[in-house]
Amino acid sequence: MAHRTVLVVLFDGVQSLDITGPVEVFAGAATYVGDSGSTYRIRTASLDGAPVRTSSGLTLTPDHALADAPAPHTLLVPGGQGTRAPDPSLIEWLRVRGPRARRLVSVCTGAILLAEAGLLDGRRATTHWGYCETLARHHPAIEVDPDPIYVRDGNVATSAGVTAGIDLALALVEEDLGREVALTVARHLVVFLRRPGSQAQFSAQLAAQTAQREPLREVQQWITEHPGEDLTVESLAARASLSPRHFARAFQAETGMTPGRFVDRVRLEHARRLLEDTADGVEEISRACGYGTPEAMRRAFVRTLGAAPAEYRRRFRPALTP
Questions:
Q1: One domain, residues 9 and 131
Q2: At how many degrees (to 10) do helices 309-316 and 259-277 cross?
Q3: Could you tell me which residues come within 8 angstroms of residue 143 by beta carbon, excluding any fewer than 6 positions away?
Q4: Is the dihedral of CA 142, 148, 154, 155 positive or negative?
Q5: Average model confidence (pLDDT) for the chain?
Q6: CB 43 within 8 A of CB 3
Q7: Long-range contacts of 186-193 (CB under 8 A, 24+ apart)
Q8: Residue 5's beta-bridge partner residues?
Q9: Same domain, yes or no: 72 and 175
Q10: Rounded to whole angstroms, how far apart are CA atoms 15 and 208?
Q11: Using only C-alpha atoms, what is the Rg of the chain?
């Protein structure tokens, strides 16, 4: 099998981690596999072949001008400040050359460049959570999903902010070269193999705003520290010394989500961590996280993550699963 060429598009204002994160994954896989011929060959290119300056001030020197770049197996488009007012010539190059790639990948706001080139129309996609609304508003032909860390739609893959590009790259390596290679790379980079694409972009605590009033803030903190307790609206309202109706209304107004939604996220997060970090059984974890029964926990995992708890654990801790 011929080498898989990974072509990374460079431009001024690019986010350096959007490039280096996935590149380290592909390069690590190539190092592990060696000279088998089925590994990756990484190339970078800017519009004119000139060095570009990243948003953090680093200068990157590309291998090629885009016009002279080799035909890619995987075309990787990073994000960054430079996506806010992209060069029309770059958009035109993507419009013409993008469909020729075997696999089209974006990291963070690189999805905006693909959208401008018309390459995401009729597809499901994601980007950094802070730009999902903008992407959806400017490109109504795209089904924008703000929650997952990455989305696969046919041969097009889009990922959320910065580090999510590493998760997506690991998933692609696993698809190309197998789980053992991807796991070895993940261990070398000291990251998990692998967060499921359906995992939320940010935690319950980050997803919800911090309540302004002290009693509500204390309730938020108490929920995160006691996921296995009685977390009904009535119980939480009593802890805040408010009526259930007043509490529910105030909680949503100040945090941006209902108490039930916040509790669901906290419990799912806690269950995930226990599956990843401990050898506790699913029944024990379901009780500790307030689900009551393994079936209730299974339904929550399948609904939100697209995988049952046992499958989720296999992805992270294969040694714990028979």
A1: yes
A2: 50
A3: 123, 124, 125
A4: positive
A5: 88
A6: no
A7: 188/28, 189/24, 189/25, 189/28, 191/166, 191/167, 192/276, 192/316, 193/315, 193/316
A8: 41
A9: yes
A10: 26
A11: 22
Residue type, 45: A
Q: Is 139 left (phi over 0), alpha (psi -120 to 50) or beta?
A: beta
- Looking at the domain assignment, is residue 194 inside a domain? no
Amino acid at 84: R
Q: Domain residues for 25?
A: 4-189
Residue 209 pLDDT class (50, 70, 90 cuts): low
When mean pLDDT is compared across 4-13, 115-124, 224-233, the lowest value belongs to 224-233
**Three-state DSSP class for residue 139:** coil
Catalytic pick among 108, 117, 216, 242:
108
Q: Is 108 an active-site residue? A: yes
- Residue 296, classified by CB atoms within 10 Å of its CB into exposed (0-12), middle (13-18) or buried (19+), is middle
Task: Give the predicted TM-score (pTM) of the model.
Answer: 0.67
Q: Tell whether 173 and 148 lie within a shared domain.
A: yes
CB 13 within 8 A of CB 81: yes
In this structure, the answer to whether residues 314 and 227 fall within a common structural domain is yes
Of 61-70, 187-196, 271-280, the range with the lowest mean pLDDT is: 187-196
Does the pLDDT at position 267 exceed 70? yes
Report the amino acid identity of residue 20.
T
